[in-house]
Amino acid sequence: MTPLAPQIVNLLAAILLLVTFAMLSQRRILSLIHLFTLHGATLVASALVVAWVTHDSELYYSAALTLALKVILIPWILHKLILRLNVKWDVEPLINVPMTMLIGIVLVIIAFNLALPISQLSSSIARGTLGIALACILLSFLMMITRSKAVPQVIGFLSMENGLFFSAMAATNGMPMIVELGIALDILVGILILGVFLFQIREQFDNLDIHNLEHLKEED
Amino acid sequence: MISYSGYFSQLLEIVVALASAPLLTGWVNVCRAWLQNKSAPSILMPYRTLHKLFNKDSILANDASPLFRMVPYIVFGCMTLACSIIPTLSTDLPLSPAADTIALVGLLALARVFISLAAMDIGTAFGSMGARREMFVGFMAEPALLMVMFSSSLITQSTSLTGIVENLVHRELAIYPNLAFAGVAFTMVSFAENARIPVDNPATHLELTMIHEALILEYSGRHLALIEWAASMKLFAYSCIGIALFFPWGIAQASNPLALILSIPILTLKLGIGGALLALIEMFSAKMRIFRVPEFLATAFLLAVIGMLVHFLLGA
Asked: What is the rounded CA–CA span in Å between residue B236 and residue B89?
């Protein structure tokens, strides 16, 4: 085992956290999609490094799956979606950005503390990064909470899934292949259904603000 | 201990900083013009501007206090001292124990305070507006800069810049994820501190947007020349801090004085690449509204803090 590999995994984990923060502070939807692509690409790279070190062929497959799905297919679908929906700009998030960042840093501290006892039990080469993976999940969750428009929420959901994949890799060198395939299919179907859903929301309300969904009845 | 090679490298470093700071500014302007498809000004243009300004009379307002006349010299002195503390060519610097990274940030803050006082001294609307904005940017940028410095200090267990550089160079090559965070944060802070595009536009005199230009609007002649020179040196100092913290290879060590000869071309190369990158980033970004600046700098601060947290998680 080369001593360089854990360092590269740590670096990629740090980049993942960096990209998650960038997504949290990003206002424009198009840049958000680009960042999401980068998020996926970092994930693929770290999966490849872990697979190379542990000689785990299943991880190669899941890296290939991630590449096909999260770096190529889903960003492409999202691009098509925002072109069709004609939304390029996101308005202000519900909480202003510096405040969101402050909450984000608290979440990071919580995640690091939570992960510390767990990662000591793990034998994976990427065990130090479990805290970062947890932080990515929590930050994506925060992103879903603070955005009022539908498309950033979908991206938050997807990046949360990225975080889950990364934490599985950090804790146990990846999930079994069958689980991996199931999740990948779920994500793909999920994004397609959400796409249809977004069109329906826009048809009904002329915009993508999900606050419109809070009313049960039409008011008049 | 008196070491002549130490004094020599210290002297050489100050001379290089004074002489080549305008060249760096000129190089950034040339790169920017190339990228914008304009015909570039000469790379020696800042020297010509300085020469022109030194030969002009400086005019003082009737209400100017002695402070207004002193400030260009104070600012210039601060920047010269800052450039002499930062290990640009060699780590064998007799002056470097005078100030560690914290004092260096303080030194830059001192220059900022005095230039803001001078801007308010005359009592024009633009001066005080510029001073307010400068302090507004500064109070967010300084803590972020300190946190960036601490990230490196945590790795090397030293707050002196020469100590950091010597430790980093001698360490076996390893990847430090927290330095990635610190690097991004440092880039953002140096854009804000040097009045570059996402925060301030160095080429504009449009009253609604200018920060740095509003501060020095009342200066003329040799005073203006000194302040322009000091601004070039600030850019030079920040570039050299960046090099020292993140790419310290090639800086001569105390044990090997002959490496000084090689360190000058290496520094030139690094600054050349750094200046081109600066122009490139400036090209790709748009000037922010002033109320977006706190957000920008808060991001820088938080990145630096996360860098430190990551160090504790991964480095331990």
From this structure: 13
Distance from C-alpha of B290 to C-alpha of A162, rounded to nearest angstrom: 35
A1 has pLDDT over 50: no
The answer to whether A143 touches A163, Cβ cutoff 8 Å, is: no
User: For the segment A120-171, what is each residue's pLDDT rounded down to a tens digit?
Assistant: 776 666 667 888 889 999 999 999 888 877 788 888 888 998 998 888 887 7
Q: Is the pLDDT of residue B205 over 80?
A: no
CA B110 distance to own-chain centroid:
14
Q: How many CB atoms lie within 10 A of CB A55?
A: 8
Any idea where the domains of chain A sit in the sequence? 4-213
The phi and psi torsions of B73 (rounded to 5 degrees) equal: -70, -40
> What span, in angstroms and rounded, lies between the C-alpha atoms of B25 and A163?
43
Q: What is the DSSP string of B117-148?
A: HHHHHH--HHHHHHHHHHHHHHHHHHHHHHHH
Residue A120: how many other CB atoms lie within 10 Å: 9
Q: What are phi and psi of B113, to 5 degrees?
A: -60, -45
CB count, 10 Å around CB of A189?
A: 10
d(CA A194, CA A218): 23
Tokens read off for B153: 């200090």
Confidence of residue B254 (pLDDT cuts 50, 70, 90): low
Residue B140 half-sphere exposure toward CB, CA atoms < 13 A? 26
**Is B306 within 8 Å of chain A by CB?**
yes
Residue B53, CA distances (Å) to B58, B224, B229, B233, B240 in order: 9, 7, 11, 17, 27
Angle between helices A177-205 and A150-172 (to 10 degrees): 170
Residue in A closest to B297 by C-alpha = A98
Listed by number, the residues of chain A in 11-50 with a beta carbon closer than 8 Å to a beta carbon of chain B are: 11, 13-15, 17-18, 21, 25
